[in-house]
Write a structure and sequence with these properties.
371 residues, alpha/beta, Nucleotidyltransferase, domain 5, five-stranded mixed sheet, two-stranded antiparallel sheet, 13 helices, globular
Length: 371
């Protein structure tokens, strides 16, 4: 099979085909669609490498429909292939490096989302953009009103426009354009929520995950749209790392050093999980195993660290619920937490006995060394 790589750009795409370690064909086009003469159905099928980016899914589907095998390259590990080495990075060079790496083998492959999960993520992106626009408009309107000595009373965001319109005089006239935009955004948000609800009804796993505390339909839908398939992860730790909620580590030199969380992966899901963790920590159910566990961490390390730790633990719980197809179960989680605590206690006890026995052997060992 032919070995080809594409470096996708906003204005142009670089094409490179290699054989036996040498470049045999190059091209630069304005769009991938114009490459049908090279990669279309009338040509021998090719293995094509492309880096994961915004348009990668569209390109993947198009090239696959032409009979090619598309390899989506994980950009977080693309440097190990040689991209950007020696300070030389252009579209032409990147395409060549990718093509040669494809021929050698061992390319770090990224996951391709299923079409339905892509649509779920698109709807979530639309909703997120509307939420952020609304928050910015409200913040600006509040600031302008306070500047004029007429602050708007605290209220729910969807009631802000109604409360702000109670202001009089120049203040009302000043912020009216912002309030009109708010009306439009609120209407669009209602439409986006309806569309998202329809999509979630076709995903039974969303309703399943939403049964966990601190997890509503939005967090559950975002988790599903990012993870896509629970079975592609071997353990909860792998999912936690994929989301970017595990600590960075620098353990060279024999000493283990842990830092802040890596913040790799989908930042929106990570932010939602942290919000969900705060809702558990501030919630009324003080007997929930997750709340009890977070309270114990907060007592030792403080609430901010406890919230991040709880968000990470929520990832493992959601992944296990999805994997097993079972709703949230307090008793089962409490039993698992208790089992983990007992194992830790047993390990500490065994370690203490070992240290005690070593301590009792030390005088005899010293006497032997002195003779």
């Amino acid at each position: 099979m032919r070995k080809v790589a594409l470096d996708l750009g906003a204005r142009k795409t670089s094409y490179c085909e290699v054989r036996d370690g040498a470049v045999i064909r190059r091209a630069t086009v304005t769009s991938v669609e114009t490459l049908e003469a090279e990669l279309g159905l009338q040509q021998p099928p090719a293995e094509v490498a492309i880096e994961a980016c915004r348009e990668a899914w569209h390109v993947h589907d198009l090239l696959s429909s032409w009979g090619n095998h598309v390899v989506l390259v994980d950009t977080t590990r693309s440097r190990r292939l040689g991209i950007g080495q020696h300070g030389r990075k252009t579209d032409r060079i990147d395409a060549e490096v990718l093509a040669l790496a494809l021929e050698r083998g061992g390319i770090p492959v990224a996951h391709v989302l299923s079409p339905h999960r892509r649509e779920l993520r698109r709807q979530l992106s639309v909703r997120r953009a509307l939420i952020e626009c609304r928050a910015q408009l409200i913040t600006t309107a509040r600031g302008l009103a306070r500047e004029q000595g007429a602050p708007v009373a605290s209220c729910a965001v969807h009631h802000f426009a109604r409360h702000a319109r109670k202001l009089e005089g120049n203040v009302r006239q000043l912020i009216e354009p912002l309030l009109n935009l708010l009306d439009t955004i609120n209407a669009q948000l209602e439409t986006a929520d309806v569309q998202l609800e329809k999509l979630c009804k076709t995903e039974p796993v969303v309703e399943l995950l939403a049964s966990a505390p601190g997890v509503g339909p939005i967090i559950a839908a975002c988790f599903v749209s990012v993870v896509d398939d629970a079975k592609r992860f071997r353990s909860p730790h792998h999912v936690e790392s994929y989301v970017g909620l595990v600590p960075t580590e620098d353990s060279s030199g024999g000493k283990r050093r842990l830092g802040a969380i890596s913040k790799k992966g989908n930042c929106y899901l990570r932010a939602l999980l942290v919000q969900g963790a705060w809702s558990i920590l501030r919630g009324k159910d003080r007997q929930d195993p997750l709340r009890l566990w977070a309270d114990a961490v907060a007592a030792r390390r403080g609430k901010k660290i406890a919230v991040i730790a709880l968000a990470r633990r929520m990832v493992g719980v959601l992944w296990a619920m999805w994997r097993d197809g079972s709703p949230y179960n307090k008793a089962r989680l409490a039993s698992a937490s208790g089992r983990g605590t007992r194992q830790s206690a047993s390990a500490l006890e065994a370690h203490a006995k070992t240290m005690t026995s070593l301590g009792s052997m030390r005088p005899a060992t010293e006497a032997m060394l002195q003779t």
